[in-house]
Write a structure and sequence with these properties.
The structure is a single chain. The chain folds into 2 domains: 228 residues, YqgF/RNase H-like domain (Nucleotidyltransferase, domain 5, 2-Layer Sandwich), CATH 3.30.420; 185 residues, no CATH class. By secondary structure, it is α+β, with helices and mostly antiparallel strands. Helix content is 39%, strand content 26%. The longest helix is centred in the last third of the chain and has 40 residues. α1 crosses α2, α3 crosses α5 and α7 crosses α9. The chain contains 10 helices and 20 strands. The strands form 4 sheets. An 8-stranded mixed beta sheet has the order 1-15-14-11-12-13-19-20, with helices on both faces. A 7-stranded antiparallel beta sheet has the order 5-9-10-2-8-7-6. A 3-stranded antiparallel beta sheet has the order 16-17-18. A hairpin with a 5-residue loop joins β11 and β12. Bound molecules: zinc ion. The site of zinc ion has 6 residues, from loops.
């Protein structure tokens, strides 16, 4: 978790957060947490924010593709398999302890203590630094399991979250390799594009542009190497601690509604004294058609798989192809989210937006279970994408409860009628985009000024980029 600065801030946080949480404002990134500490609730803190340069430290991940030879491949498999074995043995032991009601073992030391006994061969192969880091990885997994159990007890879990004790690195009866390297046991040469591993005295060339490692003052942490069986490649994920800077406060608020008629709808406070704000609409069309395209492909395969006369060889090939479709669909969706989030934050900076308020769509999953973008988990994913993109550019992001925001007129507070083509009709005689209205309501709930007019800009996010729709019109919510 990123650190805030100063003890005074921490005290303020103690007094504020429970109340803020109780009323439903949840900080989504480091800037939002800092803003809560320094200025309190964003809904009332309006113009009183100190405009001082602030700094937070956050942890990011750089992913590098390893360029391996058959020799290197064999080496990574050997070390990766030994580490997977360690994890499986430890998790077996800890799971048994848990299921027999003897408590949860979150410690790294209980695994470390066995290094000269049953784990001796693994210990020798990994070296003491990396063996230690593998023990810490196991301990981290059990700590997060404990955290989830606690959250479940307090009723803080999302409906889609399942709490299970850490399992085994196994797929189809085979161990899934993982290499864990401690921060001080590798060196990354950004110019020669080589990672050197200390204990094994081995150099591995890589491909990919490390975004965070290249930042001044970046501190490398745990490095994890895994194998992607679909792409048949090894990847190293390096966790990196970096400092981000921002001038907090002193800008506009924007309300965001996720995924009703559009993927994202954003509305800003008035840009000028005339009262006109800007609305950004990101359409979900390509994402939906992508989803259904893969859905059809997967259904085709399922049909073929249901044939009892199918040979075992063909069956495993078909399953492999189906797995590829699932992964590709997920990857393309993540690319759409990442592109939309990056674009949105860039436009926000240009418009002078300094705080994002996101309405979280609770209960949409019940509307149309299992259909396209109505998947709860993908909303959370999109929300996180936006929060992180905003964090990278110094903008705090908060989650605001949005119950009923689509049913109420943002202008008059009365109930609206849902009309065709994603429009809502107010009894006072005006018509609005349903999602612009919802975003306006969220802005209002976040203590923002509601613009009298909004200029609507439409975009289509795709896996390869964001396309601006060439239709700029002004609509009047009044
Ligand atoms: Zn109205």
């Amino acid at each position: 978790m990123p650190r805030g600065n100063g003890a005074a801030g921490a005290n303020a946080m103690k007094g504020l957060e429970p109340r803020a949480l109780e009323q439903g404002v949840v900080p989504l990134n480091a800037w939002a947490r800092l803003l809560l500490e320094l200025c309190g609730d964003p809904r009332t803190g309006g113009g009183r924010w100190a405009q001082a340069l602030q700094r937070v430290r956050v942890v990011r991940t750089d992913t590098l593709r390893l360029l391996t030879t058959p020799e290197l491949d064999g080496f990574l498999r050997r070390v990766g398999d030994a580490t997977a074995k360690l994890i499986n043995m430890e998790n077996y032991r800890r799971r048994r302890q848990f299921f027999e009601g003897r408590g949860i073992d979150c410690s790294w030391m209980s695994a470390w203590a066995r290094r000269k006994a049953e784990y001796f061969d693994i210990y020798k192969l990994l070296g003491s630094a990396n063996f230690h880091e593998a023990c810490r990885l196991i301990s981290d997994q059990w700590k997060s399991f404990l955290g989830l159990l606690k959250a479940a007890k307090e009723g803080r879990l999302e409906p889609w979250q399942k709490v299970r004790p850490p399992g085994y690195r196994k797929r189809d009866g085979q161990r899934v390799p993982i290499v864990v390297v401690r921060f001080d046991n590798y060196r990354i040469d950004l110019e020669r594009r080589v990672i050197h591993f200390g204990y094994w005295n081995i150099s591995v060339p890589f491909k990919g542009k490390p975004r965070w490692l290249a930042k001044p003052g970046a501190k490398q942490g745990r490095l994890i190497i895994t194998y992607d069986p679909v792409r048949k490649r090894w990847y190293a994920r390096v966790s990196v601690e970096v400092a981000l800077e921002s001038k907090l406060g002193g800008g506009l608020k924007a309300g965001i509604d996720l995924g009703r008629e559009r993927l994202i709808a954003l509305v800003t406070e008035p840009l000028s004294e005339k009262g006109e704000g800007v609305a950004l609409l990101y359409r979900g069309g390509p994402l939906k058609s992508d989803y259904f395209y893969f859905e059809r492909k997967i259904a085709e395969i399922d049909r073929m798989l249901s044939d009892p006369k199918l040979e075992e060889v063909d069956r495993s090939v078909l399953k492999e192809i189906r797995k590829r479709f699932y992964e590709k669909r997920k990857r393309r969706r993540d690319q759409v989210f990442a592109n939309a989030a990056a674009h949105l934050v860039r436009v926000c900076l240009e418009l002078g937006v300094a705080v994002l308020l996101l309405g979280y769509p609770r209960g949409i999953a019940q509307d149309k279970p299992g259909k396209g973008n109505s998947n709860m988990w993908s909303y959370r994913r999109l929300e996180q994408r936006i929060a992180v993109a905003a964090e990278n550019r110094g903008i705090p992001a908060f989650e605001i409860p949005e119950d009923g925001t689509s049913k109420t007129c943002a202008k008059h507070g009365c109930e609206v009628q849902r009309g065709p083509r994603g429009l809502v009709r107010c009894p006072y005689g005006h018509v609005m985009h349903a999602d612009v209205n919802a975003a306006l309501n969220i802005l209002k709930r976040g203590g923002g000024k509601v613009p009298t007019r909004v200029k609507v800009l439409s975009f289509v996010p795709t896996p390869s980029g964001v396309i601006a729709v060439n239709k700029k019109k002004s609509s009047n919510p009044a």
